[in-house]
Specification:
By secondary structure, the chain is of the alpha+beta class. The protein has 8 helices and 23 strands. Strand 12 and strand 13 form a beta hairpin.
């Protein structure tokens, strides 16, 4: 592990009056935000940054946290010292592994709200003062079109994945396609975040390091020694009416192809968590998770942490899961690199936060878009890319897999519009 500078941080958390709109405290041009079911955290500024690989960031974060002086009388998830990260899907990606420690955090959990200030020890800021809210900018919309894989190109990629399965390279491979577009310069990205949080309250709404989305899939959460994860694999679009909805749900639950795809994903998560947990358990059969646009087969996993591992250590152990890469993982990554003509960046990578105790909440960065924030303020339109994928197993139909990606694009495409 490379040597870290001796950064010492002073962290002060204070309870404040209940906040109705946490997102208003985020940066309009580059928001940092995390929410689910009404609980929310917004952050801005930057006090420290950690760079490295997934396998080293856990140790670097522990070293930084050990040197911090933390005054946190609340002790709630999301209070005290936090760092936010959005990591690349592929270790060979050009996107960096970065953890960012903000200077100010504003949060709400249940009926309690707080402000946290993170600074160097000589800071003279009033730790209990709320930062100013920023008024929302005007509404905007983005233009989107085909990216590196159009419809026919994606179906050809699926056929390539089926060939790899038939040749015995993999049992499952997850292949994605891309939409590319742009939006007006100076757009308030919090408008997009709010649309996703409002439309998909049961998902993790995230905005970290230029990727924004609403993910239904928990990679891992760690809280007080308890580890939980939710595995999603196997998808069906919602029906047009109640009868069609019921038929779609039943068809998914009884689909051998989707059950096989789901089993690969669950086994991947259990195998990765076992070395770090005790009493690890998962339900014998998946349940059907209903979202506004799709049904998913879902399995919840729970265990007790052992050996002092942190959320970051588990992120490194789990990612990439079979749900977003395939089985076996290394072979699936090779097939993805061969068939996808783009760098996924942070799409399908881990996104979330970690605290000084190693607890944290991490999702898989799905149903989102990545923004070229370097173009902000230049007068040029801001480039963006969105991705959606489908799990390919023996018996997959290229046209059906294309349809699945269309349904998965719906949350981000609707919000961008």
């Amino acid at each position: 592990m490379r040597e870290l500078p001796l950064v010492r941080l002073r962290v002060v958390t204070r309870e404040v009056q209940t906040l109705d709109d946490v997102l208003a405290y985020a940066d309009p041009s580059n928001p940092t935000f995390w929410s689910r079911r009404g609980d929310a955290i917004a952050a801005y500024g930057e006090t420290a940054v950690l760079h490295g690989g997934a396998s080293t960031l856990g140790a670097e974060w522990r070293a930084l946290a050990a040197r911090a002086k933390i005054d946190d009388p609340l002790g709630l998830p999301g209070t005290g010292l936090l760092a936010f990260g959005a990591f690349p899907f592929d270790p060979r990606s050009a996107a960096p592994h970065t953890l960012r420690v903000p200077s100010v955090i504003v949060g709400r959990r249940g009926d309690r709200s707080w402000v946290t200030r993170i600074a160097r020890p000589d800071s003279t800021e009033d730790a209990s003062a709320l930062p100013p809210r920023t008024e929302y900018g005007p509404y905007w919309s983005a233009s989107l079109g085909p990216g590196a894989l159009d419809h026919s190109g994606y179906q050809a990629a699926v056929r390539g994945g089926l060939a790899a399965i038939a040749a015995g390279e993999v049992s499952k491979v997850v292949l994605a396609r891309e939409l590319a577009g742009s939006m007006p310069p100076g757009s308030d990205l919090r408008r997009l975040v709010r649309a996703l949080a409002t439309g998909y309250p049961d998902c993790w709404t995230y905005a970290v390091d230029g990727i924004i989305g609403a993910s239904p899939e928990t990679l891992v959460t760690v809280s007080g020694g308890t580890v939980t994860a939710r595995v999603l694999a196997g998808t069906a679009p919602r029906g047009a009416d109640a009868d069609a909805d019921t038929a779609a749900s039943v068809a998914l639950a009884t689909s051998a192809k989707d059950q096989d795809e789901h089993l690969y994903a669950v086994q991947s998560v259990l195998a990765s968590l076992r070395p770090h947990t005790t009493a690890l358990a998962a339900s014998e059969q998946p349940f059907t998770l209903k979202l506004p646009n799709v049904f998913h087969l879902a399995t919840d996993v729970e265990g007790e942490l052992s050996g002092g591992a942190s959320a970051l250590d588990l992120v490194a152990a789990l990612h990439p899961t079979a749900a977003v890469a395939g089985t076996p993982t290394d072979a699936a990554l090779d097939v993805i690199r061969r068939l996808e003509p783009f760098d996924r960046g942070r799409y399908a990578g881990p996104v979330g936060w970690v605290d000084a105790n190693g607890d944290g909440e991490w999702a898989i960065a799905l149903r989102g878009a990545q923004f070229d924030l370097d173009a902000s303020g230049s007068g040029r339109r801001i480039a963006l890319r969105a991705h959606a994928g489908a799990g390919i197993v023996a018996g997959s139909d290229p046209e059906a897999e294309l349809l699945e990606t269309r349904v998965k694009f719906r949350p981000i495409v609707d919000a961008l519009a």
